[in-house]
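Reagents: none. Just compute today. Leucine-rich repeat-containing protein 49.
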Amino acid sequence: MDQSQSNGTFCSVLKLNTSGHVKPDAFLNKCVFVTGPGDAISLSENSPSSFPIAFRSRDDSALSPERLDLDRRGLEECPLLEGMGRLRLLNFQHNLITHIHNLSHLRHLAFLDLYDNHISQMSGISALASLRVLMLGKNRIQRICSLDNLTKLDVLDLHGNQISQIENLSHLSELRVLNLAGNCISRVDNLQGLDSLTEINLRRNCISTVTEVDQLPCLQRLFLSCNSITSFDELACLGESCSLYELTLDGNPVALETWYKQAALRCVLQLRQLDMKRVTEEERRMACVTARKEDEKKRESHKQAMHKEKRRLAIRNAALQWEGVRACLELPAQNGAKEEISPHPQVCVLTVCFSVCSRLLEAGGVNLQSLSLSDSHLAELDGETLRLFGLGALEALERGWGVQTAGAVTVIAFRYIHFDAIVPTLPRIRVKFPNLSHLIFLETNVSRLPQLAALAQVRRLDQLTIHPEGNPVVSLSLWRSFLIYRLHHFNLHKINNLEVTMNDMISAERLFGTLGHIAATETPRCRLLVLLEESRKRQLQFLLEGRGRRAGLSPEELRDNGKLLGEGLSRALFNYPSRDCCNVGAEKIWVQDRLYIQAQVQRTSDTNLKRESLHKLWPSMFMEMVRDCVLEMRDRPAFRQACLNRLSTQGK
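Predicted 3D structure written out:
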């Protein structure tokens, strides 16, 4: 081999080719090799150890004692290198070597090139502690090993082998270049300890996941072309690397996406080159803007996740508190209720509807707006639906509501709140939410028919849902008919997702109409005034005291008003004194009853005294009356004239 061929060969060895990207130029700057003419050697096979022996002439040894070039010699074994202990560079490229032997005595060897051979195991190199560059590309190696003593290794080239896993490299703290292109690696890991690594070539593998790259403090170039990476989620660790400035991902499925370039720059903001192309400032600026938006989106997503967890805990605690209240109230279990149960033909449909309703109440929608949130209650607005969980959520009804926001609310759902605590808020709901059309009660202890009458305080209602769970009243056979009768003025369209038909209204009127009429006509006036609301009391007093005539109403109008009053009165008598009324207004009601009874007793007593006095005075009074009449009629002409004068005076 002439000198030009030798120089050309070793240039390709040291710099490798552009596809390998192993360029130990820095190493070449540190080491000075004698590059004389081609090595004229003789190989002798007359060796007792069955290995060929390599001989060099004295002139060649003196001219280039640290370098030996044995490429393209058809070698099947590594020859014995007699008298070459000073070698620092050894080239075995393009031979047929299957095992590495006879090199352990080369204590000064720094560069070993075994590219393009038939080597299947990395044995025979553990003694080469001074080795800085190891070239084993294009062989048949299946596993990385035998590098324990090669702690000074600067370049390791293992491309074009059959390696399936990165391993046994963590001790190579001085390694700068690692070439594993063209292998069978599926996952990038086990990179800890490679603190000096600046370049990794992993082209043409089967990689789908990349990890631990962020643990390489000096990594500058990473080549991942032609792999199986489908998402930037598999490259999340790249975003944590502060030194990486060159990256290739072409040939991966992820590189086919239209947003690929922006996503790559967003993942690694400091990139200077992507897929061998320079990154412009405009591209970097756009990537930064996108990254900021993504960060904001992540923060918002995290915030939503935290709110979702707080929401879940609030609903859970509200449910636990309700269970305690339920235990104190001793609510009957739905399946063991003793009341008469009237099975409905559409019970299966109702069960499904209630299940869906319950899930929707707890799940919420995408436009949730939290109004009040604590450890034990939750009030939230989801579009047109206001959801209230737990007793404390009723505070949301007292907040300042905008006209537009309040007007948009059409549904209010109550859960884990005692119905008696809800009743005092119904008048405020009527005023604050003018477009309310649907009320939902779930786990609110609606247990008696009179409780349903409290819903008459709402302005209007098209639909009403009382979930069987936690509301024992639904187990009563007549609850629906009573609701239709009592809330007749609402003209309800649906109750528990079932249409209210004309037959339902006729049946309800037949059941409760007569009872209401009897109650309205037979109840004493004093009891009517106590039972009715203030507006009803004033109306009743207006008609009963005859003030309608003094107001100028005709008898026909008064009769019509009385008819309307009678119809409304029969329904209004089915009233429910809420817990608030019982606790706060009970004393007032009892005082009114006591005062009324006292007045009646006093009036009766006075009447009795008057009767007794009249009974005592009546004989004498009667005698005086008879005497006055006799004396007056004694002079008949005068009596007649006096009567005529009285009549004429009254006529005028």
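The first helix runs from residue 3 to 15.
Action item: order primers for follow-up constructs.
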